[in-house]
Design goal:
The complex is a heterodimer. Chain A is an alpha/beta fold. Chain A is 42% helix and 17% strand. Chain A has 2 domains: 2-141 and 284-353, Response regulator (Rossmann fold); 144-275 and 357-389, Response regulator (Rossmann fold). Chain A has helices at residues 2-18, 37-56, 76-89, 101-114, 143-156, 171-186, 205-214, 225-238, 255-258, 286-297, 303-322, 327-335, and strands at residues 26-30, 67-71, 95-96, 118-120, 136-138, 162-168, 190-197, 218-222, 244-247, 272-275, 338-339, 346-349, 352-353, 358-363, 366-371. Classes of the chains: A alpha/beta, B mainly alpha.
Chain lengths: 391, 287
């Protein structure tokens, strides 16, 4: 009887004691499997490079830095379980993740409740910052930035009169479509088609056929990789011929998309995309980083890898300045971070890093920067030739 | 004309749905087993076709026969070691077992092949042809033709061969069939192998126009289930027609409404059939 009381007592006290000690590790949530795995792989590369760099400089608080990875399987509900696994069980005092806007949006309240800082590397939907939770920081630019940069670019080449929106129907696609609706309205561009689709379908021809009949001058896509590939291949099939293909980065912006083996290959040619970073970016170290990733993983990184890389550098810097592995101290230190990086100078204003957006075009099987003018490496090729005139 | 185009696109996708669903319908009709691992066998078929093409240069457009054969053997093994033990047991056990097999297959694929997606690039898959004012992808059309051929030959096999008669006899009455000298165990095993072979062959035909990763099966399980219910639980011709109907419905939904509502329409169709014609298009009323 006495032992039972003792055990009950210990169980009651345990949760109180738990809050006191945190492990000296960073939690990381990314889609290592499932539909978004291509982006999860970019995250993994970014984290691996960051660990190498941080530990080469003596680690954090005098010890080598360690991370604990959690696979969200490209699903939002699993990402939320990651918060519980990493914070409640592994006791990490800071988490970086997730990849997608959908998973990240689900993660925000879970982290806020636990009062542990969350650094968001890649989620562009602006609603991930809408909670105004003091525990949430975002490294990447958002959907509004993408839409604004795209419209600004379109103005420099002669604003099209009509635009079609084609977007995947989760948080990322919806948020980017909404931002573009607002920007297009302000610029007096008519939206003639507004089409949401489900990821991982074998055929989008019916939807593309419908868009073709609206005859838009330009298209703005918000797509992940596998759908972006299918969309371009099937645009050829139905003969969808806008003058300009534009997109909200992501699937249209990673190296696999332009690869003939893994992506759309020659059908990716001429497409424009927003980008957050390029190996040719003017920020010092970009080229070297890119070459190191290529040497180690056999492929150049996309901006997603760089955002993951920089996120871990930010956390390491914050923990070093906080002087201890404790959520509140780390939060205060992240809020005051000010470091130069290959992703530009990092500084949070209202917990949002201020980051400029680039526009690229696929030219001769590679991404070329075409805007803004101070970063451009090539001139845009316009208009996009019709499919019948392409090899 | 646009409607015709949407119907054509839907039919071509529907042909593959039909082949996948026929496998599920066969297993259900004969064994009264809802195989929740069905789409995972589709995924296995896609990987077999992928490695057949990349390592041995086997074109999936004839290699689908080999993939089907390999998957039939695999299915037989799974039946003999696992499924056999839950035959005649409660539905609950059968669901748990097949769902468990599905998890194992997906997990094994992730372990062996990582979560990365893979695709093959056949020149055929990028070719477009015209039929009057309509256009279509040649690879889809070839897959469609093969799927319809496969479905027809399976139908004829069931109708005119001794084994086919035995399978139908077990489907009609598993209690009486053994009294007529039919070895039910054996028939069950063959049916399961056939069902898995359908999924495998469909996987081989799907690969050139799609891509494969370990979790690719997910949506196809649900679609097959909808099709099997639509056609009449266990009816092969029902599943074939149901697949085409679902494909066309999805095509028209994407054209007249929005692509992201295709799943909604799938399930409305599912509920409507359950409410209005629970025996399905080709099913008989329960005695």
């Amino acid at each position: 009887m006495r032992s039972r009381i003792l055990i009950t007592g210990l169980l009651l006290v345990a949760p109180l004691a738990r809050g006191q000690s945190y492990s000296a590790k960073v939690g990381v949530i990314a889609p290592l499997t499932g539909a978004e795995q291509a982006f999860g792989a970019q995250h993994e590369r970014g984290y691996a490079m960051a660990l190498e760099d941080i530990n080469a400089k003596g680690g954090v608080l005098g010890k080598p830095l360690e991370i604990i990875k959690y696979d969200d399987q490209s699903k939002a509900d699993v990402a939320v379980q990651g918060a519980s696994k990493l914070v409640d069980q592994d006791k990490v005092p800071v988490v970086i993740g997730a990849y997608s806007s959908q998973s990240t949006l689900a993660l925000v309240p879970a982290m806020n409740k636990r009062q542990v800082p969350l650094v968001i590397p890649t989620a562009t939907a602006d609603n991930v910052m809408a909670s105004k939770s003091p525990w949430v920081f975002r490294v990447c630019g958002g959907a509004d930035d993408y839409a604004r940069a795209t419209v600004d670019f379109l103005k420099t080449i002669g604003l099209p009169k009509s635009l079609a929106l084609i977007y995947e129907n989760t948080n990322f696609g919806q948020a980017n479509a909404e931002s573009m609706r607002v920007q297009a309205k302000a610029a007096k561009m008519a939206i003639v088609a507004d089409e949401a689709y489900a990821q991982a379908a074998p055929s989008y021809t019916a939807m593309l056929q419908k868009v073709k009949e609206k005859n838009p001058e330009a298209i703005y896509f918000a797509s992940y990789l596998l759908d972006a590939t299918q969309l371009m291949k099937q645009s050829r099939q139905v003969g969808l011929n806008p003058k300009i293909y534009t997109s909200a980065g992501t699937g249209f912006a990673i190296p696999a998309f332009i690869s003939p083996e893994k992506g759309a290959g020659k059908d990716a040619e001429y497409t424009f995309s927003t980008q957050q970073w390029m190996p040719e970016s003017k920020w010092p170290g970009s080229r070297e980083f890119s070459d190191r990733v290529k040497a180690r993983f056999g492929e150049y990184p996309s901006y997603h890898a760089v955002q993951a890389y920089v996120s871990l550098l930010i956390v390491a810097d914050a923990v070093n300045r906080a002087g201890k592995w404790e959520p509140k101290a780390i939060r205060e230190a992240i809020a005051k971070v000010e470091i130069p990086s290959i992703f530009g100078p990092i500084k949070f204003v209202n917990q949002q890093n201020q980051h400029p957006i680039l526009i690229t075009q696929v030219q001769n099987g590679a991404f070329a920067i075409v805007a803004p003018a101070d970063q451009a490496t090539a001139k845009p090729i316009l208009p996009t030739p019709p499919w019948s005139a392409r090899p | 004309m646009a409607t015709l185009q949407a119907i054509l696109n839907g039919l071509l996708v529907g042909g593959i749905y039909a082949l996948i669903a026929m496998g599920m319908a066969l297993v259900f009709g004969v064994m009264r087993l809802v195989n929740f691992a069905h789409a995972s066998f589709l995924m296995v078929g896609m990987y077999v076709a992928f490695f057949g093409y990349t390592l041995l240069k086997i074109n999936p457009y004839w290699g689908f026969v080999l993939v089907g054969g390999a998957l039939a053997l695999f299915g037989l093994g799974v039946y003999w070691t696992l499924i056999r033990r839950v035959m005649g047991q409660s539905d609950f056990l059968q669901i748990l077992l097949t769902e468990g097999i599905s998890l194992c297959l997906v997990g094994a694929a992730q372990l062996l092949f990582t979560g990365d997606y893979r695709s093959i690039n056949l020149p055929l898959a990028n070719r477009t042809a015209n039929l009057g004012p309509l256009n279509f992808n040649v690879a889809y059309a070839v897959s469609f033709a093969i799927a319809i051929f496969g479905a027809t030959s399976m139908f004829l096999y069931m109708r005119y061969t001794e084994m086919g008669r035995a399978i139908r006899a077990v489907a009609q009455n598993p209690g009486v069939a053994p009294l007529m000298g039919i070895r039910v165990q054996w028939v069950n095993g063959i049916s399961f192998a056939f069902g898995v072979a359908c999924a495998g062959a469909a996987g081989a035909l799907l690969l050139p126009i799609f891509y494969v990763n370990p979790t690719i099966g997910g949506p196809y399980n649900l679609k097959s289930f909808v099709i099997v219910v639509l056609g009449g639980m266990g009816s092969l011709e029902g599943a074939a027609l149901g697949g085409l109907i679902l494909g066309v419905t999805e095509g028209l939904t994407a054209y007249y409404w929005e692509d992201s509502y295709t799943q909604v329409v799938d399930f409305v169709l599912f509920l409507a059939v359950l409410l209005l014609r629970p025996q399905g298009l080709f099913g008989r009323k329960a005695p």
